[in-house]
Amino acid sequence: MPVSVVELRGRLRRSDRPVSVAVVVGNLLLCCVVLWLVAGAGATTREEETASWVLGAKIYGIWLAAGLVLFAVAGLPRTLLRHLATMLLTPSALFLLMVLLSLM
Fold this sequence. Notes:
By secondary structure, the chain is an all-alpha fold. It has helices at residues 5-14, 16-38, 46-74, 77-103.
């Protein structure tokens, strides 16, 4: 039984709240992994450290852009805003936490 685009979009809009919660949790986990990559991830040479940083930056950028496009096209405004907020605030908060822990 084929589903029309209008019907599919209506279903997506009704699921905006649970999807946004899942997106926030996924973004938090991803940002922790990306910070680990950017921090070096056990790199022993400068080249490995640079490669790890570049990989982390690519993953972060693609995830941010893909989420913004996907949620905008799907018509999920709450998910879009929560995705943007967690992707911008989480790295800053994790970096600040690392700095504070290193000062102790």
